[in-house]
Amino acid sequence: MKRFLSVVAGLLAVNTARAQIPAYAAAPRVTPAKGEQVAVLAGGCFWGVDAVFKHVKGVNSVVSGYSGGGSAAARYQIVSTGAPGHAESAQVTDEPLQLSDRDVLTVFF
Predict the structure, then answer these.
(1) CA distance 54 to 92
(2) What are the beta bridge partners of residue 40?
(3) Residue 94 belongs to a domain with what CATH number?
(4) Considering 26, 45, 51, 83, which one is annotated as catalytic?
(5) Domain membership of residue 70 as a residue range
(6) Which member of 46, 56, 60, 86 lies 3.0 to 4.6 Å from 66 by CB, making a disulfide possible if both were Cys?
(7) Per-residue confidence of the chain (109 residues) as pLDDT tens digits?
(8) Active site residue 55
(9) Residue by residue, what is the 3-state secondary structure of the chain?
């Protein structure tokens, strides 16, 4: 289980110095400040993920949107059909000194 969480943390918690954060359709792009980390989490309905993480100490911002698929089809009426390949996602920006990757995944799962 520990190895699984470590692998998932490596895939989900993205250090912005090493990788590009996926763009979100219909949501403003959040540029992390130096020292912040970003995780993109898809959990069925982004509003639930959004609401929970806005109350977690160490989280600086949460932006809900759609990841994957094309931006022209990133509208709820289309995405909810499952056809365009989008996932409702939340982009969580946090301070790694206050919130570890494991903490982020514990809250998420």
Answers:
(1) 9
(2) 91
(3) 3.30.1060.10
(4) 45
(5) 2-108
(6) 86
(7) 444 444 444 444 434 334 344 455 445 556 778 888 988 888 778 888 999 999 999 999 998 888 777 777 677 777 777 777 778 888 899 999 999 999 999 999 9
(8) no
(9) CHHHHHHHHHHHEECCCCCCCCCCECCCCCCCCCCCEEEEEECCCHHHHHHHHCCCCCEEEEEEEEECCCHHHCCHHHHCCCCCCCEEEEEEEECCCCCCHHHHHHHHC
